[in-house]
UniProtKB/TrEMBL annotation:
Presence of keyword Membrane: yes
Organism domain of life: Bacteria
Spans traversing the lipid bilayer: 25-47, 153-174, 186-211, 217-238, 259-282, 317-338
Entry membrane topology: Multi-pass membrane protein
CDD domains noted in UniProt: TM_PBP2
InterPro entries for this protein: MetI-like, MetI-like_sf
Name of the protein in question: Carbohydrate ABC transporter permease
Origin species: Rhizobium oryzicola
Length: 352
């Protein structure tokens, strides 16, 4: 493998060959620390999604998913948890009948007799490594997770396609046409970035109510299609496309839409890919707007549906963590396929 393609050589290279500078140390600390800060919560959520419900709230927490070992004991209807107990200096495996304060009632699981009282400080629970697959299967079979997933996929795909088309058309007009008020319109579009979402949420909801799109997936999609960030990103990239290409196409009698579709859009592919990634992340993770617009469970998106696992008196953390971790898969796949366009697309927006 060539030196430039060797990841070990890339990570261990220094500013001066054969010498380690303070900037090299700071760079390694920054990169390794930043990577750990990002990865540790994701790894923790992934491992916690495999734990039984009781283990998630256990303190002190464990890194790997474990479950208490239980055994059916004659004379008891429910299986009892097994504990390693120290009695008279000897360690035995006992089954716990009940716990009262700092004392626990224990019996021999093989030859149960009268319960004996044991100090909780003298006992440790018997556990084994386990994977709670029901955290994933229960929401898929007993709840409406697949419906939530279908709704989220529909909203994300349709909203992203409409966002790309609408913002590309606006960016094409603002970058390749000269007309009175062009800069004023662009500044007006960019200035909307400074308006907080909470300010326009109530008027936007009233418009959705007026057109009859409440509790409808289109009520989520349509108000979010026009994005000032998308217009700015695509306009700045389209400014780098030579005007001579468009003039040559006009000389060949190409229509304006054909110029846009066959020339401008293909050349803007890196910026479109960046906007597509942003749009997928926005739509997929959106919670507040769908929560306001949607009221029927059949129309809930994934993020709103996950909120249904949080009750008034209890929170089903095992289901929430499992489904949250599962919901990361689609956006991760999109990012992996389009990541090569990110640097090119963002860097190209500032070239002119």
């Amino acid at each position: 493998m060539a030196n430039g393609l060797n990841p070990i050589a890339f990570l261990t290279r220094t500013r001066r060959p054969g010498r380690i500078d303070i900037t090299d140390i700071l760079s390694w600390v920054w990169l390794i620390g930043g990577t750990l800060i990002v990865l540790i919560p994701v790894v923790w959520a992934g491992l916690s999604s495999l734990k039984p419900a009781a283990e998630i709230t256990r303190f002190p927490p464990s890194l790997l998913p474990h479950a208490a070992v239980q055994k059916s004991v004659p004379g008891f209807e429910q299986p009892l948890s097994l504990w390693n107990v120290t009695i008279d200096g000897q360690q035995k495996q006992m089954a716990m009948v009940r716990r009262i304060g700092l004392k626990a009632q224990m019996v021999d699981p093989d030859k149960p007799g009268p319960p004996i009282s044991v100090d909780v400080k003298e006992m440790t629970q018997v556990q084994r490594l386990t994977v709670a697959t029901e955290n994933f299967t229960d929401p898929l079979t007993r709840f409406d997770f697949l419906t939530f997933l279908k709704n989220s996929v529909f909203v994300t795909v349709v909203a992203t396609l409409m966002t790309l088309i609408v913002n590309a058309l606006a960016a094409f007009a603002l970058s390749k046409y000269k007309f009175r008020g062009e800069k004023a319109i662009f500044l007006l579009i960019i200035s909307t970035l400074m308006i907080p979402l909470t300010v326009i949420m109530v008027p936007a909801y009233l418009v959705v109510v007026g057109v009859g799109l409440v509790d409808n997936l289109w009520g989520i999609i349509i108000p979010t299609v026009a994005s000032p960030t998308g217009v700015f990103l695509l306009r700045q990239y389209m400014l780098t496309i030579p005007d001579e290409l468009i003039e040559a196409a006009r000389v060949d009698a190409a229509s304006e839409f054909r110029i846009f579709w066959r020339i401008v859009l293909p050349l803007t592919a890196p910026a479109l890919a960046v906007l597509a990634i942003f749009s997928v992340l926005w739509r997929w993770n959106d919670f507040l707007w769908p929560l306001i617009v949607l009221s029927s469970r059949d129309h809930f998106t994934l993020q709103v549906g996950l909120n249904s696992f949080q009750g008034e008196f209890s929170v089903q953390w095992n289901y929430i963590l499992a489904m949250t971790f599962l919901s990361l898969a689609p956006v991760t796949v999109v990012f992996l396929f389009l990541q090569k366009y990110i640097t090119t697309g963002i860097a190209g927006t500032g070239m002119k």
